[in-house]
Automatic annotation (TrEMBL):
Name of this chain's protein: DYTN protein
Domain of life: Eukaryota
Domain EF-hand: from-to ranges: 65-154
InterPro entries: EF-hand-dom_pair, EF-hand_dom_typ2, KCMF1/Dystrophin
Cross-referenced Pfam families: EF-hand_3
Length: 167
């Protein structure tokens, strides 16, 4: 957790420099508390870096496709000339991401994750899939991750302004 704490302090220090007055001085502390609540429920003092990265990516203001590519990058494994995501890695990703809606009582069950994995690998004979298949599946907005594009769309609409006046 110390490594994640240092990384968060550095990240939010840079954000404060880029956007003065828009980033709370305690942002790193609050974010670390959220990550601990999501990924260290038993109080071990340990949070997997990959899990923390998945949460930060999903909660970032980046475009959906950029988030999806980052997920692949963090969870895929090199296999000779290609980089692939296995069922096990996808299970880890979905389990990690499911902790976010679970914080507000909206997480899904283990069987929901297994159904999503089966759906992603539908028609695949290999033990792993390439990035394009993974991205294609995510673009279909699987139910287990429906909250992610929904949150993205909500945050994107916050910046929209219209020059119309209502009566």
């Amino acid at each position: 957790m110390q490594q994640i704490s240092r990384m968060l302090m550095k990240l939010f220090r840079r954000a404060r420099l880029e956007k003065p007055g828009q980033v709370d001085r305690r942002a790193a502390e609050f974010t670390l508390s959220l990550l601990v609540a999501m990924y260290d429920r038993s109080g071990t003092g340990y949070v997997k870096t990959r899990s923390a990265a998945a949460a930060l990516i999903s909660l970032s203001g980046d475009a959906l496709l950029a988030k999806y590519r980052a997920f692949f990058q963090f969870y895929a494994v090199p296999d000779g000339k290609a980089t692939l995501i296995t069922r096990s890695a996808l299970r880890s990703l979905l389990t990690d991401l499911n902790q976010i809606p679970a914080m507000v009582g909206e997480g899904c069950t283990r069987s929901c994750v297994e159904i999503a994995i089966h759906d992603c690998f539908h028609g695949v004979l290999n033990a792993a899939i390439v990035e394009e298949k993974f991205l294609s599946w995510l673009r279909s907005e699987p139910a287990v991750l429906l909250w992610l594009p929904t949150c993205y769309r909500l945050s994107a609409t916050e910046m929209v302004s219209h020059q119309a006046r209502c009566r």
